[in-house]
User: Which sequence fits this backbone?
């Protein structure tokens, strides 16, 4: 299946959002970091991160959205990025799904196209 | 990223989750009508159109207040965040979105506190440097002033690090309430360091390095007004708040403030009657007019 955004690109967006939501240095977040054991993220953190990344992608002309049932099964940062990337489609202007709803919100600074360099770190991760 | 404000009205319009609370929508709508008729509060009702319309008719107020329809409701037993994700048209989320879009200036709900916190965070975003917003209630102290209680019931299972953030937000709120050099205490079962459960001990260690920390404080000290801010986890804080209210046979001022979100959000008691909802709406209008969250944000930026 054609992918509209690479998993690596989405990893950077997820790391940025996790850093913002959990108030952790982006450099300390490894793609292998687990949401529960390593990052102590709860369901609200997870929803915030995913909706934030969905908004970031929408600004890049990409619509992505993972289902509620799938959301609670996300284990790691890399896992979330891979599933979001797999769900990505070009934006068609329809506003009837969670990503569009999320994009209507005003919260947080959009990451937009300025993605920081890839980060490496082991804090909390099972390095 | 300035929020779009309504240009042709005064600040102070309150979006009310008409479906939230033990006695919703009847008592909630009746409270909105009272706040509007008796005190001129500008209220927008958010909820199921048929139920809200009927509740307005029941108090002889058909057409008195605007209704913004929202088809869904987050249940008290639902995971708030997942529920909001699954129900973008839930009344609490629609009400929070009105504030985010500048169509209202404050949000009030007597529904699930967790859902209100989550909706506020997802729609309004957080103030810079805030990890998780906190519910702040004012506890009447024996001195002439009140003590800020954080967390009064937002996050039942807090990590010790979270309490440091609660202390910062509580101090900022106390400063906005014109307390000079406020002091913060950690709610505990004894004054000495090393008292309490694992959370309290770890939080004490972390708070010891922070400004204006006065150490552990027992409930008696809180009620005596020995500190200006008392910090604890949301479970303990909610039990403490409810105990104080039960002992005084009242429900206090009817609303707690959500600190740390970029907007004005008030949480009313789940069991609130019409009078308490009306009181919460008046507080919300005042808070919106005063721009509380911006003031808290400005003080947080200094510490």
Assistant:
């Amino acid at each position: 299946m054609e992918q509209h955004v690479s998993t690596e690109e989405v990893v950077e967006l997820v790391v940025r959002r996790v850093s913002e939501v959990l108030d952790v240095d982006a450099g300390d977040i490894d793609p292998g970091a687990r949401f529960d054991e390593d990052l102590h993220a709860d369901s609200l953190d997870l929803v915030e991160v995913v909706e934030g990344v969905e908004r970031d992608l929408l600004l890049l002309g990409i619509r992505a959205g993972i289902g509620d049932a799938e959301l609670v099964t996300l284990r790691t940062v890399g896992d979330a990025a891979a599933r979001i990337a797999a769900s990505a489609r070009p934006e068609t202007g329809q506003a009837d799904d969670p990503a569009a709803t999320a994009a209507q919100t005003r919260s947080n600074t959009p990451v937009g196209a300025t993605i920081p360099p890839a980060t490496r770190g082991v804090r909390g991760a099972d390095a | 990223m300035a929020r779009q404000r309504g240009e042709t009205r005064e600040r102070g319009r309150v979006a009310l989750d008409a479906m939230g609370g033990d006695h919703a929508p009847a008592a909630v709508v009746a409270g909105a009508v009272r706040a509007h008729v008796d005190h001129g509060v500008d209220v927008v009702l958010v909820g199921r159109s048929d139920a809200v319309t009927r509740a307005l008719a029941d108090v002889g107020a058909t057409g008195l207040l605007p209704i913004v329809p929202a088809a869904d409701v987050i249940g008290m037993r639902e995971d708030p965040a997942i529920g909001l994700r699954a129900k973008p048209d839930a009344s609490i989320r629609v009400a929070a979105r009105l504030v985010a879009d500048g169509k209202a200036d404050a949000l009030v709900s007597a529904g699930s506190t967790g859902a209100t916190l989550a909706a506020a965070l997802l729609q309004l975003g957080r103030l810079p440097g805030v990890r998780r917003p906190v519910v702040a209630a004012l506890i009447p102290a024996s001195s002439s002033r009140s003590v800020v209680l954080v967390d009064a019931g937002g996050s039942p299972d807090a990590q010790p690090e979270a309490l440091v953030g609660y202390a910062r937000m509580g101090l900022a709120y106390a400063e906005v309430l014109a307390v000079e050099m406020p002091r913060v205490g950690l709610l505990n079962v004894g004054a000495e360091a090393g008292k309490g459960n694992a959370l309290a001990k770890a939080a004490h260690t972390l708070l010891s390095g922070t400004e204006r920390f006065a150490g552990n404080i027992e409930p008696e000290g809180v009620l005596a007004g020995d500190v200006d801010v008392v910090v604890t986890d949301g479970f303990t804080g909610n039990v403490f708040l409810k105990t104080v209210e039960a002992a005084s046979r009242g429900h206090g001022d009817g609303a707690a403030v959500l600190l740390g979100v970029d907007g004005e959000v008030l949480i009313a008691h789940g069991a609130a009657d019409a009078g308490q909802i009306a009181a919460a709406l008046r507080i919300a209008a005042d808070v919106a007019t005063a721009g509380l969250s911006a003031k808290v944000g400005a003080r947080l930026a200094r510490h």
Notes: The CA atoms of residues 10 and 81 of chain A lie 5 Å apart. Residues 7-107 of chain A form a domain with the Non-ribosomal Peptide Synthetase Peptidyl Carrier Protein; Chain A fold (CATH 1.10.1200.10). The beta strands of chain A are 62-63, 89-90. Helices of chain A lie at 7-22, 43-59, 68-71, 77-87, 98-103.
